[in-house]
Amino acid sequence: MSTPAQPDADSVRAEARAWIQSNWDPDLSLVEWRRRLVDAGWATPSWPERWHGRDLPKWADDVVSEEIRAGGAVGLPLGTGTNLAAPTILAQGSDELRDRFLAPILTGEETWCQLFSEPGAGSDLAGLTTRAERDGDAWVINGQKVWNTSAHHADFGLLVARTDWDAPKHRGLTYFVIPMHQEGVEARPLRQMNNHASFNEVFMTDARIPHEYMVGQQGDGWRVALTTLAFERKFGSLARPQYGDAPGRALDEARAEAAAHFETYKWYPQRAGRVDLVVSRAQATGKDKDPVVRQEIARLLSMQKAAQWTADRARAARSLDRTPGPEGSIGKLANSDIARQASVVHGMISGADGMLTGADSPLDGVVAEVLISVPAQSIAGGTDQIQRNILSEKALGLPREPSFDKDKPFRDVPHNR
Amino acid sequence: MSTPAQPDADSVRAEARAWIQSNWDPDLSLVEWRRRLVDAGWATPSWPERWHGRDLPKWADDVVSEEIRAGGAVGLPLGTGTNLAAPTILAQGSDELRDRFLAPILTGEETWCQLFSEPGAGSDLAGLTTRAERDGDAWVINGQKVWNTSAHHADFGLLVARTDWDAPKHRGLTYFVIPMHQEGVEARPLRQMNNHASFNEVFMTDARIPHEYMVGQQGDGWRVALTTLAFERKFGSLARPQYGDAPGRALDEARAEAAAHFETYKWYPQRAGRVDLVVSRAQATGKDKDPVVRQEIARLLSMQKAAQWTADRARAARSLDRTPGPEGSIGKLANSDIARQASVVHGMISGADGMLTGADSPLDGVVAEVLISVPAQSIAGGTDQIQRNILSEKALGLPREPSFDKDKPFRDVPHNR
Amino acid sequence: MKFVFSEEQEELRQEVRRFLQKTSPLTEVRRLMETDEGYDPAIYRQMAQQLGLQSLAIPEEYGGAGYGWLELVVVFEEMGRGLLCAPYFSSIVLAASALLESGDDAAKRDLLPGIAAGTTRATLAHAEDNGQWDGSQIVLTAVQSDGDWQLTGHKSFVVDGATADVVLVIGRTAAGLALFAVSEGFSRTPLATMDQTRRLARLEFAATPARLIGTDGDGERILNGVRDLAAVALACEQVGGAQACLDMSVDYAKMRHQFGRPIGSFQAIKHLCADMLLEIESARSAAYAAGWAIADQDDDLPAIASLAKAYCSDAYFNAARNTIQIHGGLGFTWEHDAHLYFKRAKSSEFFFGDSSYHREQYLQRSGI
Amino acid sequence: MKFVFSEEQEELRQEVRRFLQKTSPLTEVRRLMETDEGYDPAIYRQMAQQLGLQSLAIPEEYGGAGYGWLELVVVFEEMGRGLLCAPYFSSIVLAASALLESGDDAAKRDLLPGIAAGTTRATLAHAEDNGQWDGSQIVLTAVQSDGDWQLTGHKSFVVDGATADVVLVIGRTAAGLALFAVSEGFSRTPLATMDQTRRLARLEFAATPARLIGTDGDGERILNGVRDLAAVALACEQVGGAQACLDMSVDYAKMRHQFGRPIGSFQAIKHLCADMLLEIESARSAAYAAGWAIADQDDDLPAIASLAKAYCSDAYFNAARNTIQIHGGLGFTWEHDAHLYFKRAKSSEFFFGDSSYHREQYLQRSGI
């Protein structure tokens, strides 16, 4: 294969801009517009031409996104389909799966969820016990998943299940696409201690998956799952698209789509501690005069500033194509500390009002929501304990703990179910 | 064997008092007096008659001690001989060892040290690598010990050495009495970061021990060592005998003995944080007006009060013959926290003066000594980490970590030397 | 002997624990959390009739059993462990203590027998919207005309204020502060509480007729006495709640496996639990010391009460948040019980003054 | 680009590190700790002659190399890592900065070239016995008679005060505070310091003739400017020292075996090291941000300098005490190097104001 001449960013940008100017039509339905975008290869310009792309380098995705934004147009749908399912299937799926699934993800016609974690397999994801058994041309699935955003309305799920109980834990797993709209699949919302229900539990009872919906090879599910998890880290940030208030059917639908998507995450700023509110709250209550409270505010703001600068350091290194040092990996743990300290400070500031919630309480319940959401910050996406393991091993090179379960047949390993 | 009638405390007390009144003579030399005390069986009334005791119940030791104190007389010598060597030899030694060693310990004519820890075996004492090899009627010792109080002037040492490298770690150890005054034994004082040198390193190079000086059986050294460690915990407190200033040769010698003994420990109050000085220091510097400092003082005093009350709870339970709950075992860990917090508070109070030491610094260097001694509080006698292991296993019943080295031949276990 | 509960007191502990396990397991607590009233009057009556809990520390001459505060230490520790929903703290610690402090014999004769029998639910209203627990900033005014007192103003953070039969109110008079009793003629607005197991209300008074309890001007002394007792009762509750958290964590850590091992065999979990144990046992020592200070009428009570409230608040909150952490995602769910303790811990941290307030008070009351 | 050191700056870091490893390993630091002078003049000369470190941030017109503060960030981080004993902080950050702030061209021409060449060792004396680092409580008085200034009073905690060729003194005049230079005519008493790698002295002045530097009354502004720079230099040193502690701990934890495993495979040690890493990297970010604030002449410098000093002080002390803990008994011995870092950490925590002081300053300087 000959290497085509590398296009430069300016010409890609110009070409994309011209195409958007000629083709963007806010009066289309959102799906109609995205079909047009996908068909032209501008939805995912770095993808292969055979699958909705233009074979451009990776940077082209960002350049074209900017142009779509600049042109007032709508880009890819938000969520698990775009962020996780599409890149995983593109990277690891068969051609049949790519043909079947990629386009409807990009147009938003089919939505997805992720079915990895289980009640008995959290920190130790590879210890999962959802069972997949071959039955002719299909697989029969039994088990329970948890922490599944959007599972109650998704069309398909990314599923990891155990197909071999005699293999060691990481080698007995297989990765599937599971159709969610079937009798054997039930998604139930899971209420959190802060009263939100952002996640579901998914119960699978003799649910069926066509054999062709296997992603990668049988027994190779852990490797495929790691691909998905790498994309998950990459798309971890939750920048909300800004569509302004221009009229048009596609824009209306995109605004509704974004609102629905972000509804799930509306308590996340509270989970992170709402440091932004601290100074104004202290001033409003007069607690900014209390030297003891001031110390804690200063600690909090210092931690947050330091974390921002640490992120800036990592970003600066990456922008020069240098690999960031440890500063690139401490953010998650820092955020737990910040959230905890923010909760302490909000408490000190609120005093007796901290006992209240909702409309009776400060800022219409926002502060109360901080107090009862912060505990999730140090759990979700990897507990502080797991983060410290990772940091000590990856960033400091300390030895792993000796393992007991890696080489044994999984059926001989003590596990929760 | 018939059980003799149990004597009551009042009659024991009366008999001891009468004996002391007739026999205590401050003009004797200390050794002469103690010989008299030992020969009469009043030095160790709970010991068997055959070895300097009176076969009385355990409580008799305390009762008679009280009478000795009340009579203005001198009791047993201080230190490793009395606290560790004597009870270990009485409990585990052969009759020959008891005959040879017990009396000179009780009279103070021979002094002792403990040779357990090694540079490579601290938290994991059973991983020690000092080597004992049989050579005819003797054992030849090679290795290094550390943290040995008084080793530079002791006559004998309690030694644990490895005699079998093919046995699992706990089963290849043997316990010996080693004569310290020999060519193959060298004790060097070990200077600490606070400039004191309370401990020694002891280097043994082809040092020799007569075979009869083995305590317990060959390979049974771990069990014997646990006996010693149990006595060590029991004698952990360092109450200093009060001899007043009455005249008399025995008293002069006892005062000198106590002064020499406690010289080693004179920085221990600083290691514990000198909480007693905090309020007066804060008042002297005016820092008692600073609300931020006040919070930390309050935290410190609260921790200390709580620890005292916890000790009171355990003592009250024991006084009623109840087994204390977890309150009986948290003291050591609490003391680490208290010392650390005391160091923080002393620092806040001292400000710039905290950079100084000795005569230029607050309280003639006492505060500076606190700052540079407190780090030992969370290490000596079992690190905080080991304490947390013990608490979580013993008090909470959490499972031990899986072990890798317990059942293997020691020579196959990775260790430091 | 100090720090040793008598066999009778230990037996009381077992009785209370059994009673709460039977009549008020956490499933029942969850049911009551969702009701308007917030507690089950039938259980409250049983507490009085079967166990006599309401009468324990009330003198016999006022219909009580004439025991002392050590009994209450035991009872509050168990109620904290069980997150009991009941107007017990309000009736017994706040109202009964205020009446006893007031020295108003007629009022005591009128009100204490009902409180002791569990038929009168009472509370004390002192804080106002600014959330100050001491009396210094009280605005609600009491004026006397023709010998009758009338209250005008508001009270907030009144525990069980929406359901109490009698509300004792600290109001400002020309002589300073004074204690009043009201039963009607004022409005009650339930407040939305983070901790649904303890209800608060805001009360509005507009020339509400009230009965003066004790001496006019004596309100600050009465309030200060009650605040110390309230701090100790809360500290005991907090110890009980913290212990429940630790027990829950340890049980889970023994049972839950990850990486082929119980998570309780990992030092990350073991050491967290050991630190919780240390803090809880220390807090327990402080709470018991405070209880004995009441029982022994120790002059140090105000200092020790503040010490205990600060220490136990911190220990409880740390235990509750670590319990969620040890349970991972499960611990953050509504269906798991950890959040019930977390919310109680967080709320009772603020109730009657937060830890930094009480640390400062501890020093001041110790003469430092 | 902010937060990216240039290749030249990275090369400077390597050069300084190699130089210190060669000329001032910790064995040499230990030797110098025991000497009267406390540093090796030959090494100080080499620093100037071979690396030009003293000249880095001094403008070319005064004999310097005209680089900026980012170079000093790098240099101080490495000096902190190596615990260098030398009058570099005093001469470069305190004295040279005070001269530059003073705007006194004659004084700059007289003194800066010698400082840049490493031949003049200078320092700043501002704190007095009460240990206040700002100018508010300065008592030492400067009076003018016949155009000549004389100083009377004392200064304390003067870094390298016993050996400096020139001492810049902040004194009180009728106009407020002013900066003076003295070289002789005063007594110097070395102070016994916990951290033997940085020397302090107490100076006594009795009608000591002095040269006014800059404008009378401008001393407070000059001092405030220098204090910000000093805080940043110390913060960078602290990051370097903390990193040395972490490196030492991690190396030991990989090598040391107990219970048949490297102790670095136990979560108790791993997690402690991870927390140290988090705190040190955060502190480094703060120190670098402060360095860039100087380089960019950012108005936020005073706030960021205080933030950095507080953050880096805490990070260093925690790193040093955890390093001792991880090394166990060995870490408490004189022969192990951990205590050298511990004592530097503890002392520099107090130097130029402790963490609670700087946290308060951070808020005030941020307008909060």
From TrEMBL, chains A, B:
Region (Disordered): 397-417
Tagged with keyword Oxidoreductase: yes
Ranges of compositional bias, category Basic and acidic residues: 402-417
SUPFAM superfamilies tied to this protein: Acyl-CoA dehydrogenase C-terminal domain-like, Acyl-CoA dehydrogenase NM domain-like
Ranges annotated as spanning the membrane: none
Domain Acyl-CoA dehydrogenase/oxidase C-terminal positions: 289-395
Keywords: FAD, Flavoprotein, Oxidoreductase
Gene3D superfamilies cross-referenced by the UniProt entry: Acyl-CoA dehydrogenase/oxidase, N-terminal domain, Butyryl-CoA Dehydrogenase, subunit A, domain 2, Butyryl-CoA Dehydrogenase, subunit A, domain 3
Ranges of residues in domain Acyl-CoA oxidase/dehydrogenase middle: 113-204
Gene Ontology cellular component list: plasma membrane
Family per similarity comment: Belongs to the acyl-CoA dehydrogenase family.
Entry protein name: Alkylation response protein AidB-like acyl-CoA dehydrogenase
Organism encoding this protein: Antricoccus suffuscus
Lineage of the organism: Bacteria, Bacillati, Actinomycetota, Actinomycetes, Geodermatophilales
TrEMBL record, chains C, D:
Entry's family note: Belongs to the acyl-CoA dehydrogenase family.
Sample GO molecular function, one term: acyl-CoA dehydrogenase activity
Source organism per UniProt: Antricoccus suffuscus
Domain Acyl-CoA dehydrogenase/oxidase C-terminal residue range list: 229-365
InterPro entries, per the entry: Acyl-CoA_Oxase/DH_mid-dom_sf (IPR046373), AcylCo_DH-like_C (IPR036250), AcylCo_DH/oxidase_C (IPR009075), AcylCoA_DH/ox_N (IPR013786), AcylCoA_DH/ox_N_sf (IPR037069), AcylCoA_DH/oxidase_NM_dom_sf (IPR009100)
Cofactor(s), by name: FAD
The keyword Flavoprotein is assigned to this record: yes
Domain Acyl-CoA dehydrogenase/oxidase N-terminal: 6-118
Keyword Iron recorded: no
Name of protein: Alkylation response protein AidB-like acyl-CoA dehydrogenase
